[in-house]
Amino acid sequence: MSGNVRAGHHVSISESFLREGATCRSVSVEQWGADMQVHSYARSRIARGAHSVATNIMMSPLRHHQSHSVTEIAQDGSSSDQAIVFAPEGTTRIMDSEIRLTGRGASSDSVTRMVTAGGHITNRNLLVGAAPGTRGFLGCDGLRLGAAGEIVSIPGLRAESAEAQLSHEASIGMISAEKMAYLMATGLTEDAARDLILQGFLRLDESHMPEAMRAEVTAMIAAAKSGSM
User: Burial letters for 183-202: b for 16+ Cβ neighbours within 10 Å, e otherwise?
Assistant: First the structure.
């Protein structure tokens, strides 16, 4: 989006289809104006033996973002996605997603790291094991940088087959005072200790990203943490 656009309403609708045996790697980095409202809808279908690997970076401040996505994975297909979500003061994000493992041997790993610096984040995930031999994992972790702001994390599992293996991990908290004290005892300043903890929390699997994107993503995370975005 042009840097001159500060306010507006954007609606996006996307459909993705992976053929049998195909592999798709994608990196999405958002850039919005501070007063933008965004609604996005996505539908994906991963065919037999196909593989999807996705990284989503949602660090840019905006007024309101609401998204809804549904992914269907066929026999022996797989999906692996990771996301970083940041909400400074004045930003609201509402995310609803559903992953359906519809074919035998289908698998999914979905990890979301959420940070609020005064904004509001609601993250609702549903993972459905609809066929035998399916495996899926949801990781939904949130970090508050202060007293202001809110994170609501709601992971859901539904096994429609007795042979489905589904699991989730969810946590919300603030930076541990014990960790801060330990790092500061090594000689780090308070700000440096806090940045180190946050950097570890937001760490991505860089193997999922093209090398050309890694420096840009690192710079964006640093800018968001400093409040300069």
Answer: beeeeeeeeebbbebbeeeb
